[in-house]
Amino acid sequence: MSASDKSMDMIDTYLGVVAAQLPKDKAEDIVAELRDEILARKEDREEALGRELHEAELEVMLREVGHPLVVAARYSDRPQGLIGPELYPWWMFAARLGVIALALLALARLILSVLFGGEELGRALGHAVSGFMNGAISVAGVLAIAGWVIERQPKKPEFLTDWKVRDLGLFAWAGTMERSGLDFLRGNVVSRNKAKGTPVADRSDFSPVAGAATSAVFTLIVLLWWIGALGGVRIDPLRLLDGYDLGAALREVHRAIYWPVAAVLAARVVFDGLRVVTGSPVKLTAAGDLVFALANMGILAWIWTASPLSELIRVGSANDFWQQMLSRDSWAMNPVPTLLMGIVVFGFICEAVRAVQSLASLVLDRKIGRNH
Predict the structure, then answer these.
(1) Best exposed site among 102, 203, 268, 329 by fewest CB in 10 Å?
(2) Where are the domains of the chain?
(3) What is the pLDDT of residues 294-304, one digit of tens each?
(4) Comparing C-alpha atoms, which of 246, 254, 267, 252 is closest to residue 227?
(5) Read out DSSP for 65-89?
(6) Which helix (DSSP H) or strand (DSSP E) does residue 129 occupy?
(7) Alpha carbon 173 to chain centroid, angstroms
């Protein structure tokens, strides 16, 4: 085979790989155009040298043109990245919210494991860090898949093109929180910025749509943790001073309410997504909040009256409850049952208040209290 034939064979091989990456209806025209460009470049190079290009020299020239995958991508009308530059800031923002939620869950797991689970601090810290890392990888993967799907939709989602200024408070608050760190949480930065006249976002200024988006992200993280996708719920054996096995009781409670809680969390994610899409109208938000408040009240009522924890935390009257909550002896001798009792009762009261506020919002068609 002559040098010229070898050169043409290399070029044909190169163009064949390019053509394999292109749509059939466009491949022939694009390859013909690219062939002319390569042959013209080859002729110019040979004219300057006064001879035909060697095989190695032709290889270098084709590398200058570009790898067939890269060259074919130049002619593609499809997105050229997993997540494009317009969507990437949204992906990063959602990832930051997810990391914050995971950090809070990891901290809660660490505290509960050490204080109530009898686990050594070092071991509990290792489990918390491991769960956080696994969760962060899972969250990043889920968001990447969502971004990939959104990026390839023929029509851009409304949240990219039809955003409103009143929805921007959440983003300013999150950015300020990330920049200021713990000082922001203590309120120092807020007070200093206000004194300087610097605008500071307040969560009370969040629009319902921004609140719904935040709720959806955080609830999704909790749901993934609850079903075991982020490490699962780990309850170690724990015996109280009177011999009561709190760990066994909590495991039974978890098994009994696993599916109801998973269903409520999943429904909340879907509902918050619907609020984002529809603009979070008052009646829709109120109706959903009422349903979820009643569902949460039902779960808490079951824990109080019929769960394996009932015999540990239930008292006969409101007077007995307040006496135990305000008694130093109760907190000194039975801190865990007293704490659990307070969590269940005050949680039930908060959900009852939210149910009343939601019902009032639904009837009056205007926001009453703080909606989610």
Answers:
(1) 329
(2) 3-74
(3) 999 999 999 99
(4) 254
(5) H--HHHHHHHT--S-SSSS-TTTHH
(6) helix 121-151
(7) 17
